[in-house]
Design a protein that fits this description.
alpha+beta, 4-stranded antiparallel sheet, D-amino Acid Aminotransferase, Chain A, domain 1, 5-stranded antiparallel sheet, Rossmann fold, globular
């Protein structure tokens, strides 16, 4: 069935460039599937977005925005008010998932292990480190590892002068070992990918620049750990009330016995759809093509209120 699809892309977050790539790929795939597709680069002109929706009258919006204002419930709230079906998670799930401390609290209550952590204010660092090094300093509401800093022995300042992410940060113990990620499609865990990269954190450059990371699919880890990662990702998806697809990131310290070294880090409710993105890669591994994945999301598009 042919539909009118409005693809929201770009946006005003620090992940704008990635969103433009995701949106272009989605628009091309949906057009190839026979849909009438229009792309819209979201700005601070909310009235302009409303006019675009009212004039095009889409059957559904494919939300290809990443980061703040597009992934945190803001755009979702506008679409709810206008009664326009949209892809991915609703307002509540999006808002909670974008907030790392809130996500951490929710999944811990559901029995998912996360690194030991705390909320720390800028002035707290004047009295010394909040926990033994190495530890990780994270913005509370950014995606794509933006602003994340690993503080180790010999580092002068845990909170640098270039910090631009608000008065608070999430500080967590640093978990060494291997980076894993799990995509969820509806109620189906897709696969576990191990991401190999140089450095201590899978940062923005490694995520979105060809040649900076290697994706090993399926991850070469013990089966109990593999299954535990699938279960933890599905638990996080359910506990937060996510819809459509999500992707949960983990660290696995293989020096610890059994599944004791598996730690949930965060969840992404609107994973990338770029040529380097992990969820489309996992779907393809299971025989689900890029266009099919995009159409599946459109078929599930709805208002959540």
């Amino acid at each position: 069935m042919t539909r009118r699809i409005l693809v929201l892309m770009g946006g005003i977050s620090r992940e704008r460039d990635v969103s433009l790539v995701s949106g272009a790929a989605v628009a091309k795939a949906l057009a190839a599937c026979g849909h009438e597709v229009r792309s819209y680069d979201v700005s601070r002109d909310v009235a302009g977005l409303v006019r675009e929706i009212e004039s095009f009258r889409p059957d559904a919006v494919f939300n290809a925005l990443h980061g703040r204002y597009g992934e945190d419930g803001c755009v979702q709230g506008l679409l709810e008010m206008m009664g326009v079906p949209y892809t991915h998670s609703g307002v509540r799930a999006s808002a909670i998932a974008m907030n790392k401390p809130a996500t951490k609290s929710a999944v811990e209550r559901a029995g998912v292990r996360t690194p030991r952590g705390m909320i720390v204010r800028r002035e707290d660092f004047d009295h010394g480190d909040p926990m033994p090094r190495p530890f990780v300093v994270k913005p509370v509401d950014e995606g794509s590892t933006i602003g994340v800093k690993v503080v180790g022995e010999g580092d002068n300042r845990a909170w640098g002068d270039d910090w631009a992410f608000g008065a608070e940060a999430l500080v967590e113990e640093y978990i060494g070992g291997r980076e894993l990620t799990v995509g969820i499609m509806g109620e189906r865990p897709l696969a576990v990918t191990e991401i190999r990269f140089d450095g201590q954190a899978f940062d923005y450059t490694a995520k979105y620049t060809a040649g900076h990371a290697e994706h090993v699919l399926p991850a070469p880890i013990p089966r109990p750990v593999y299954d535990a990662a699938l279960d933890a990702a599905l638990t996080a998806h359910r506990v937060l009330g996510c819809d459509g697809i999500s992707r949960s990131d983990f660290r696995y310290d293989d020096r610890r016995p059994g599944t004791d070294g598996l730690y949930f880090l965060e969840i992404n409710t609107q994973p990338g759809f770029t040529p380097l993105s992990l969820v489309p890669e996992q779907a393809q591994h299971l025989g689900i093509g890029f266009g099919t994945l995009c159409e599946w999301l459109i078929e599930r598009a709805r208002c959540h209120a």
